[in-house]
Amino acid sequence: MNSEDEVFEAVGALADPVRRGLYRHVVATPGAVGRDAAATAVGVSRSLAAFHLDKLVEAGLLAVSFQRLSGRTGPGAGRPAKLYLRAPGERGVSLPPRSYDAAGRLLAKVVDGAALDRELQAAARSAGAAESALPDGAADPVAALRARGYEPYRDGETVRLNNCPFHALADEFPALVCGMNLAYIEGLLPGCAGGAEWTAAMDPPPEGCCVSLTSKTNNS
Fold this sequence. Notes:
Largest sheet: 4 strands, antiparallel
Oligomer: single chain
């Protein structure tokens, strides 16, 4: 659990626009990101990118790993590169303090205990359909999912989702919440531009959201 001051400091680290751009690039990229790639993505020098990336690590927003990008090992392989990726854990700010996460866990526990999975999925599917009928419903599926925090990215012909907006609840109630998530996306797709050409299915990766999208055209 983060103290309120720690959360404020972490969020405050994103006030700088360059730092914010670097953070967004790193967390939206599957796997770890090197300094050169991050610098190119936001249009700054490598040394400036390194400075801001390390500040994000100090703030607890990014984590570090080391890897030889050449793929070589042993003498002469060179030093491992410093890579950055999203740090584990969640940070949220609410002024005044609110506890929607506690309410979400309580509601999920009741729904799970009452075996109301089908009713929840029906409600989620209707909610997705209603959202795609809003003014931004003309967006394509990738844009619509990005606007809702899923961080979609292309993996060949598949669209995968780098972030699960319901991560904490999905860890505690995986079947319930993942089923709800799939139903929500299924309801959202038909109202998106070209959404009828895509199919959502359970396809959990090691990290990220349990749902992926595939084109019906490629499956035919």
